[in-house]
Write a structure and sequence with these properties.
mainly beta; seven-stranded mixed sheet; 11 strands; about 0% helix
Length: about 120
């Protein structure tokens, strides 16, 4: 079993920054796809960024140039650095680690961007 623990959410003003962390505990050696998703008020969950294989990171068009996803596999942690935040970025952010047969989600962390 795998547990994902998220941290780093909060409230910021437009233009501010936050860094989300997602620490994985358990048997993670076969979980090779990692990503961040978000679900805004009244919206469906959407992909923000993900690493489908080593050396490749994909971003949603809405966050390109502002968000950076990284990972520290030695410590079983992935990160999402969010810069120049906009009110449209307000959402609950979820991390995801998965393989072809296993799929795990974090508990979600609230990010609110408002003046």
């Amino acid at each position: 079993q795998v547990q994902l623990v998220e941290s780093g959410g909060g409230s910021v003003q437009p233009g501010g920054s936050l860094r989300l962390s997602c620490a994985a505990f358990g048997t993670i050696f076969s979980l090779y796809v990692m990503g961040w998703y978000r679900q805004g008020p009244g919206k469906q969950r959407e992909l923000v960024a993900h690493i489908p294989k080593p050396g490749i990171t994909n971003y949603a068009d809405s966050v390109k140039g502002r968000f950076i996803m990284s990972r520290d596999l030695a410590n079983g942690t992935i990160y999402l650095q969010m810069n120049d935040l906009k009110p449209a970025d307000t959402a609950v952010y979820y991390c995801n680690w998965r393989s072809t047969s296993r799929n795990y989600w974090g508990q979600g962390t609230q990010v609110t961007v408002a003046s």
